[in-house]
Amino acid sequence: MLARFSRSAIKSSRCFSTSAKTPQFSEAEEIEILKSVESPEFKDAAKKAREQYKDIIANLTKTEGKSIIRSTGLKPTIHINTPSGKIAHALFDAASSMRSVGIVSKELSQVKNIIDKTPGFRSALDGEIDNSEKATMVELLQTTLPLSPVSGFFLYFMTNEGNFKLINPALNDFKRLVGSLDTEMSIRLTVAHEYNAAEKKDLEGQVKSFFPPETSFKFSYTVDPAIEKGFIIQSPFINHDASYATAAKKVEAEEKTVLTEFLNDIKNGIKTQTAVWETKEFRDKYLTFDEKAYDASNRN
What we know:
The protein is α+β, with helices and mostly antiparallel strands. The protein contains 13 helices and four strands. The protein has a four-stranded mixed sheet with strand order 2-1-3-4.
């Protein structure tokens, strides 16, 4: 059965993505990854995540369709009282609480597109093959798409609970919930300088791509030179910080983390009288020159 669901077959249906290709791991690295997944800490975190998701679904049934997360002010105007509908409501509320409904909607549209266009995928999810084979299919699908935490956990939860037959109906219901939103959306855009008409058209076009086609928009602009370059999007539907200032802070924090690890490795080597700086692991971690990244930065 699984021979029909090769990684290449699923990848052939993927939509455009800016993510890098899935890295190839050595056998030793795969063993280490599997060990971490089997660790008590990982299992405990997964258990807590499952419990939180179940609580959301349980609360939805108690509130008769009323949104249990109101912090963003965003909620669908319809209620779907079916097993797949309750899951879709829970998914919507989880995305809404993280102000990522737009991102999740776009990602799950890609997931549904792969399910619908990969030969035999949908019928296999609804069929009677072993759940372990269905789980492998969903895992292969996840490796082809860069998913946000909410979208990724949706697939993880459905796989872990064995709800394979509800995946496609839940995706359909989630799309209905998103489509029921109010037709006017207020968007606040923070930019580093006053935008001209062409710049506004380009930025607003990027924002509109995250919303249903029938949505109308009310844009407001704030100029903040402190962000230096880029922009910040704020709305009940999506929050996204694409400013240069924030990116620079993240890079600086990552550099500090690497430097701290570097110094700690040196100190530990001195304490244990081990020349760690001569090991291949140390050289690969700190002293390897990434030629491809260097060339790419020069082209930009």
